[in-house]
Amino acid sequence: MDINLVNWPAVVVAGLSAFAVGGVWYSRPLFGNVWMKDSGLSEEQVKAGNKGKIFGFTALFSVIMSANLAFFLADPKVDIKFGTAAGFAAGIWTFGAIATHSLFELKSWRHIFINGGYSVVSLTLMGLILGAWRAHI
């Protein structure tokens, strides 16, 4: 890893891409309704949440995850294929952590797959973006 090869604009774009994925993933037509039910949250509770705090920390943590992945991909040989595969592997890793926590919280398998699936998809996209941008530097 050569930290000088980290492409910071790519890190920000890849990190913020999690918002696009999350917007679709947790929308009502896809998984939003069942996620709320399995989380034990009412619509009123979700609406009452501090949106600045939620979205602000989500952006921060997404960029941190993207930067962490970018450190692993900071090699001149990285391309879109490797970046995507590395992102997918990171997603599987986080899926395992989410599943472990959720099992102890007595969450359903459906809940685990909704949250873990989001992690796999968003990190795979991050890896794709970072790998594609790396290949064009």
Structural overview:
The chain is mainly α and 137 residues long. The protein has one domain. It is built from six helices and no strands. Helix 4 (51-72) packs across helix 6. The longest helix is centred in the C-terminal third of the chain and has 27 residues, at 109-135. The two termini are 16 Å apart. The relative contact order is 0.21. The model has no long low-confidence stretch (mean pLDDT 94). It holds the Pfam family DUF1761.
Q: Could you give the distance between the termini?
A: 16 Å
In the predicted model, the low-confidence regions spanning at least 5 consecutive residues are none
Shape: elongated
Instruction: Please report which band the strand proportion falls in: under 5%, 5-15%, 15-25%, 25-35%, 35-45% or over 45%.
Output: under 5%
How many domains make up the 3D coordinates? 1
List keywords for this structure.
mainly alpha; elongated
Put the structure in a nutshell.
The relative contact order is 0.21.
List the topology elements.
Elements: H1 8-25, H2 28-39, H3 43-48, H4 51-72, H5 80-104, H6 109-135
